[in-house]
Amino acid sequence: MLVKDRAKTQAGSSLVDAFMAEVRERNTHEEEFLQAVEEVAASLSGVLERHPEFQSGKVLQRVVEPERVIQFRVPWVDDFGEVHVNRGFRVEFNSAIGPYKGGLRFHPSVNLSILKFLGFEQIFKNALTTLPIGGGKGGSDFDPKGRSDNEVMRFCQSFMTELFRHIGPDTDVPAGDIGVGGREIGFLFGQYKRLANEFTGVLTGKSYGWGGSLIRPEATGYGTVYFAAAMLEAVGKSLEGKRCLVSGSGNVAQFTCEKLLDLGATPISVSDSGGFVHDPDGIDRDKLKWIMDLKNVRRGRIKEYADQFKGATYTAADASSGSNPLWGVDADAAFPCATQNEINRTDAEHLIGNKVGLVVEGANMPTLPQAQDLLIESGVLFGPAKAANAGGVAVSALEMTQNSMRYQWTREEVDDKLKSIMRSIHQQSADAADQYGSPGNYAVGANVAGFLKVANAMMDQGVV
Ligand code: NDP
Ligand code: 2IT
Fold first, then answer.
1. How far is CA 234 from the centre of its chain?
2. Strand, helix or coil for residue 63
């Protein structure tokens, strides 16, 4: 690198450092949010140098402030007459390129920091999909585990009774995330329709019989595997025959396993918050069907897999251990599909030690920054969440399109569009990585490409 270019890069880095100091000061204690902002900002020194107008327009300072944050009380009554009070949130983060779009998470860990990190990631992920959707996220600290369908319905109705006044098909369109699947979207939609007296595409992930899109349930997992296949193809390899570690056993994990099987790979693990199962014989289609019934219908624990299938072992989670033994299992590729911060530096060392050559994120921010850096430096192909798991929100946007047209596409039509969107995201990320001096680094590429689209839109629209 020329000395003058090095000086320029240092200038960009010091701009990013000053910016991060300000963000930390203004968002103390929001650990997950700060982690997500830092990961993006660290990729942007080259962008800031080439675009002084983003500096004077304070685009970075604006993009980290949600346009609107709504917090509300969600009271509800359980099956025994006891009153419960949860917190509801919607973070309407950025509408520069379309209506706010992003999921709702119901999990006891939900707080503003987690929803701000998810909403912030969603802005750039949605920009990469090539479709006109802004970024948002919401949810509640409600824990659906162990609750009856009636309790979940009453909770969803109470949650929507406040949320409905803030959302709309051209304003903000929520969908699912952890703890929010087809059942919850049904209850939420029913209450919205009753309050608004309108049948519109205000939520995505609806059932096919009343406005949902084919392939939406499958889209995040399928898209993650399409992205992985594109990464491998770029280096003359394929998924065929690869033994794959998958974490989680919910929506994203299930359809990641299904598409891995379609493409000739073998998933050999799944997990939930209790622990993980390792099945050295592979999770075939029959076993996957059993997992789907366990998780989606019987709502049981993944531990039961090891009782059901000989040869599989269950390892209970141990929060005090400092690493997750799932990532120490011998394999060729890894697909973290459960939640944030599930791969730390020690886990990354185990993956590298076992010669795992590919890590692709189905979950949002599952890899800690130090682990991500180590994987990339060690030559592991790394597919970052905002690119790799964008298939879910992309098909959500296709569901919005179909709702606007009052029409439904076939499975093949939606799947073809999903494949071409994932290819485009792969290309945009690879090109931006090349153009900004980090060839092969999809994390930098996805951050830069997503940010440029949003930043240019914000500049066009003035100081708002
Ligand atoms: P689900 O609720 O369907 O499944 C979540 C899975 O992750 C469950 O197996 C759950 O186990 C496990 N899990 C959740 N929290 C924890 C935790 N704190 N520690 C360990 N395991 C945990 O959610 P999804 O599959 O929809 O979401 C999984 C990930 O994918 C999330 O990061 C989500 O943000 C991301 N994502 C989802 C999209 C979608 O379309 N649904 C789109 C893009 C990203 P348990 O049952 O024990 O809680
Ligand atoms: O993180 C995500 O992209 C999602 N949970 C899906 C969001 C959506 O609007 O489909």
1. 23
2. helix
Could you tell me the end-to-end alpha-carbon distance of the chain, in angstroms, rounded to an integer?
Answer: 38
For the entire predicted model, the pTM comes to 0.97
d(CA 188, CA 206): 10
310 burial level (CB within 10 Å; 0-12, 13-18, 19+): exposed
Of 101, 19, 128, the residue nearest 65 (C-alpha): 19
> What is the 3-class SS of 389-454, one letter each residue?
CCHHHHHHHHHHHHHHHCCCCCHHHHHHHHHHHHHHHHHHHHHHHHHCCCCCCHHHHHHHHHHHHH
| pLDDT tens column, 269-323 | 999 999 999 999 999 999 999 999 999 999 999 999 999 999 999 999 998 999 9
Residues 6 or more apart from 315 whose CB is under 8 A from it? 275, 276, 277, 278, 325, 326
Question: What is the Å distance from ligand 1's center to 64 Cα?
Answer: 25
Please, which residues bridge with residue 75 across strands? 85
User: Amino acid letter at 39?
Assistant: E
Q: Hey, whose CA ends up nearest to atom 30 of ligand 1?
A: 363
> 77: which strand partners?
83
- Quote the tokens at residue 396: 């959500």
417 torsion bin: left (phi>0), alpha (psi -120 to 50), beta (else): alpha
Q: What is the C-alpha separation between 381 and 452, in angstroms, rounded?
A: 23
Q: Which ligand is nearest to the CA of 204?
A: 2
Take residue 229 and report the two structure tokens written for it. 């296949």
Among 272, 298, 303, 340, say which to mutate for ligand 1: greatest number of ligand atoms within 8 Å of CB: 272
428 lines ligand 2 (CB under 6 A): no
In this structure, are residues 174 and 118 in contact, taking their beta carbons and an 8 Å threshold? no
* Ramachandran sector of residue 101 (left: φ over 0; alpha: ψ -120 to 50; beta: rest): beta
Distance of alpha carbon 84 from alpha carbon 211, whole angstroms: 32
Residue 92 phi/psi, 5-degree rounding, is: -90, 95
The tens digit of pLDDT for each residue in 164-223 reads 999 999 999 999 999 999 999 999 999 999 999 999 999 999 999 999 999 999 999 999
Q: Are strands 266-267 and 269-272 parallel, antiparallel or unpaired?
A: unpaired
CA distance 326 to 273: 12
Gap between the Cα atoms of 152 and 160, Å rounded: 12
